[in-house]
Amino acid sequence: MWAFTRLSLAAVVLAPALSAHAAQIVIEVGPGEQKIFTPSNITASVGDVVSFHFLTGNHSVTQSSFATPCEPLAGGVDSGFQAVAADTTSIPEFSFAINNASAPLFFFSKQTIPVNECNKGMVFSINQNPNSAKSFAAFQANAKADVPAATATAGVSSSTVTAVPAAASSGAKILVQVGAGGGLTFSPSNISANIGDNVAFQFINKNHSVTQSSFASPCEALVGGIDSGFQFVAANATAVPEFGFTITNASKPLFFFSKQTIPVNECNKGMVFSINQDPNSANSFTAFQANAKADVPAATATAGVSSSTVAAVPAATSSGAKILVQVGAGGGLTFSPSNISANIGDNVAFQFINRNHSITQSSFASPCEALASGIDSGFQFVAANATAVPEFSFTITNASIPLFFFSKQTVPVNECNKGMVFSINQNPNSAKSFAAFQAHAKADIQPAAKANTKGRRVHARDFAKVAGK
Ligand SMILES: *[C@@H]1O[C@H](CO)[C@@H](O)[C@H](O)[C@H]1NC(C)=O
Ligand SMILES: *[C@@H]1O[C@H](CO)[C@@H](O)[C@H](O)[C@H]1NC(C)=O
Ligand SMILES: *[C@@H]1O[C@H](CO)[C@@H](O)[C@H](O)[C@H]1NC(C)=O
Ligand SMILES: *[C@@H]1O[C@H](CO)[C@@H](O)[C@H](O)[C@H]1NC(C)=O
Ligand SMILES: *[C@@H]1O[C@H](CO)[C@@H](O)[C@H](O)[C@H]1NC(C)=O
Ligand SMILES: *[C@@H]1O[C@H](CO)[C@@H](O)[C@H](O)[C@H]1NC(C)=O
Ligand SMILES: *[C@@H]1O[C@H](CO)[C@@H](O)[C@H](O)[C@H]1NC(C)=O
Ligand SMILES: *[C@@H]1O[C@H](CO)[C@@H](O)[C@H](O)[C@H]1NC(C)=O
Ligand SMILES: *[C@@H]1O[C@H](CO)[C@@H](O)[C@H](O)[C@H]1NC(C)=O
Ligand SMILES: *[C@@H]1O[C@H](CO)[C@@H](O)[C@H](O)[C@H]1NC(C)=O
Ligand SMILES: *[C@@H]1O[C@H](CO)[C@@H](O)[C@H](O)[C@H]1NC(C)=O
Question: Which ligand 5 atom is nearest residue 249's CA?
Fold first, then answer.
């Protein structure tokens, strides 16, 4: 398993950076409940991003080889199972980029329940030659014939593909501020959104969440629903955490609350939010919020919610570029890409693809130790049947300071010690390069923590000024 991870890491690190000019090719997985990829085969150029949109069912896109169509290729690309609930409110997406257009690539859905989908012909290929012996038609025929895994493989190199950030949503981005002005509010409190729109929550201060519930139970988390987890913003924070998701059904009203209960139950204080409610229906936002407040004991029933706290969206968030980083793509212990350059105003968005990772700020000197009051997404768990891709982001306000990060997960392995680290604006030619940082992480170097606290304070002054003013 860890050998697989290292192969994936090598493929990612060696891959070229995503070109801004690359085409995006969208493949629908399971359209109309069918066990198919549409289109089933494509031609792609170097730099092109192939983006799989999982529309229904519970499928995967898993790399195999021409010779063994239904067997995962060691070190190959694998989306993992992507289950889409019938009433899903978002579409999982998985993407990778092509870095060798001469090598034909072959894929299948590894789902076998209730039927072996590969044997049903649910396969896909990139850059096959229809006139060769290894055409897509021959590959699909082999898949249906259940060609056994014992034969020699056709030699598709795992280095020909690499995970890259999924393409940004084509819809509008709708910003919602959480706790603006210190209030227990979502601003605005309710929105209308279309299919494809991305709803992004900016956590302004304190310690709130945006957690999906239902009209009937406003303050109870919906099983399998969207949940940002608690997003703590320190008083001296210099970055704005962001969590978002994309709408896939605009006919269905969605209801949310902040699950914080300390020092007060924020839901009972009316800190709720809705999307596409009908103000004239029984399930209006007004009725939802009244239900949320109805749980409040009479003695503490003061609202304390100010609607005058709606603030303008920070200019930096809307002006800069959005840089996407995938966390754990293909099941690997990786950030993809592993290091980036970002300008002031750029928004760095982390998509948590699977498992249970974090993006946590540390320092060059102590790669695997959380920086006091640094940026921390908290653990972002992605269930196998998840219907949304959690995203956490922040905005750069000082591009002169290199920033260092790690995944703080230690179960079942210390992911930082496995090299699951990330940096922004490192200088590859300096002593504090990303390569040196990652080597320290793997060597479990923690001089500040182990040697003396004075060293850590000195370091924090020099490098902890995240997006500092
Ligand atoms: C691209 O793939 C082809 C076919 O597998 C291989 O011969 C060639 O060396 C590869 N090119 C690079 C740059 O890896
Ligand atoms: C390959 O894809 C093309 C374009 O979608 C399609 O016309 C063709 O039928 C596909 N080939 C096979 C064998 O399915
Ligand atoms: C945020 O709130 C949660 C739930 O009350 C709590 O467990 C967590 O410690 C808080 N985080 C910080 C940094 O205070
Ligand atoms: C995900 O799986 C859990 C446990 O199996 C189940 O309770 C939940 O309803 C599922 N959620 C979705 C969205 O399918
Ligand atoms: C959207 O949600 C509504 C209400 O739950 C449902 O009736 C409809 O079938 C859904 N549409 C799609 C395309 O899933
Ligand atoms: C719903 O949102 C709109 C737009 O922000 C606002 O005017 C309206 O007052 C909100 N409805 C309620 C009941 O708060
Ligand atoms: C995610 O990992 C953390 C730390 O290991 C753990 O406490 C938490 O229970 C995990 N979450 C899930 C849902 O497994
Ligand atoms: C924020 O304050 C904490 C404690 O007061 C300190 O340890 C930390 O270094 C500060 N962080 C920043 C980014 O200034
Ligand atoms: C998706 O399929 C996998 C493999 O069959 C299974 O383990 C998982 O439970 C399925 N997820 C859902 C939500 O049905
Ligand atoms: C830093 O990122 C760039 C672009 O993604 C990549 O080419 C380079 O190899 C990375 N550096 C290290 C040391 O991994
Ligand atoms: C950015 O950080 C550098 C290094 O700490 C500092 O010298 C500079 O003044 C900062 N720039 C801004 C605009 O805050």
Answer: 1
